[in-house]
Design goal:
The chain is mainly alpha-helical. The protein folds into two domains: 179 residues, no CATH class; 134 residues, no CATH class. It contains ten helices and no strands. The two termini are 33 Å apart. The relative contact order is 0.11.
Length: 318
């Protein structure tokens, strides 16, 4: 039985929102495994096909050999080693292209079906943010292809924040279509909660970019002190960034618990997600930033952000 227009619209927006979270997870895995600089060219239109023949692989490998990452970090790499990091970056880039194809479905429906044209501003914003994200992703990769084989932490943070923006608009559009029942609760505290989550995520991206999470793998003390000695000399050194990320995370966690009290629907989702995210952050830190926990920590930030945005939507007047 063919899908109705409304069902197709809902299904495409649901798949789109889910794919955005998956893109975030693949992007995090790409960064954590050091795969992000394996493709040294940006071909947004023609670069959707991977190498197939041995000569094509050798040509791609030769391009990678010109990069600072190969010359300074991975000169021992064989073709097989290169292929293992190439595929993750390729899948991440391919995911961006697939997202645009899925987004095309609700866009065409909104253009062709008059009842859904109110969605066009949201969909246009998604196209604009998606294009900006593609450009920012390449700018981030390009920053690690010049002299220093590490991407700019600030571009990494901008890339993550754009991911939050795309996810937020997609989720809000999805909820607009599904039209869940509104609730008679105040929502003014939720805006502050969203801002705190974004601030903590921004600082977390800087911590990841500067590899600051490895400095003090203890909690709550840092080198036996609540405030690291480095804080007195600079506000932007890795130890200070880790401290500010910790401080922001603690404030965000406590504020989300306060917003959630007395943990009734849907506010209880916020408190539960905040507790899990805070626990994952501590476990990631004291565990020495293992890939699995770090990946869950990054992904669950979107779950927390989404739970707040969902609650905010439910408390808006029709």
């Amino acid at each position: 039985m063919p899908l109705s227009t409304e069902s197709l619209l809902k299904a495409s927006l649901f798949v789109l929102t889910l794919m955005i979270i998956l893109m975030v997870m693949v992007g995090g895995l790409t960064r954590l495994t050091g795969s992000g600089l394996s493709i040294v060219e940006w071909k947004p239109v023609t670069g959707f096909l991977p190498p197939f023949s041995f000569s094509e692989w050798m040509d791609e490998f030769a391009k990678y050999k010109t990069s600072p990452e190969f010359q300074k970090i991975n000169p021992f790499m064989t073709l097989s080693d290169f292929q293992s990091i190439f595929w993750l970056e390729y899948i991440h880039r391919l995911g961006g292209r697939l997202l645009s194809l899925v987004l095309l479905i609700p866009t065409l429906i909104a253009l062709l079906k008059k009842p859904y044209r109110t969605l066009l501003p949201f969909l246009a914003l998604l196209w604009a943010l998606g294009a900006a994200q593609g450009v920012m992703g390449w700018m981030m990769v390009k920053s690690g292809l010049v002299n220093d084989p590490f991407v700019s932490p600030y571009r990494l943070a901008a890339h993550l924040l754009l991911g939050f923006a795309i996810f937020g608009v997609s989720l809000w559009t999805l909820l607009t279509v599904y039209k869940p029942s509104r609730l008679p609760f105040s929502s003014h505290r939720l805006i502050a909660a969203l801002c705190l989550v974004l601030l903590t995520a921004f600082l977390g991206a800087l911590v990841a970019g500067f590899k600051a999470g490895l400095l003090y793998p203890t909690f709550p003390l840092m080198g036996g002190q609540l405030i690291p000695p480095e804080l007195s000399s600079s506000l932007l050194d890795p130890a200070s960034l880790q401290f500010f990320h910790r401080l922001s995370a603690c404030i965000t966690f406590l504020y989300c618990l306060w917003v959630s009290f007395p943990f009734r629907y849907p506010f209880g989702f916020i408190g539960g997600a905040a507790f899990i995210q805070f626990s994952l952050g501590i476990a990631t830190l004291v565990g020495g930033v293992p890939v699995s926990l770090a990946l869950l920590h990054q992904g669950f930030a979107f779950v927390l952000f989404g739970s707040i945005l969902y609650t905010l939507f439910l408390t808006q007047k029709n």
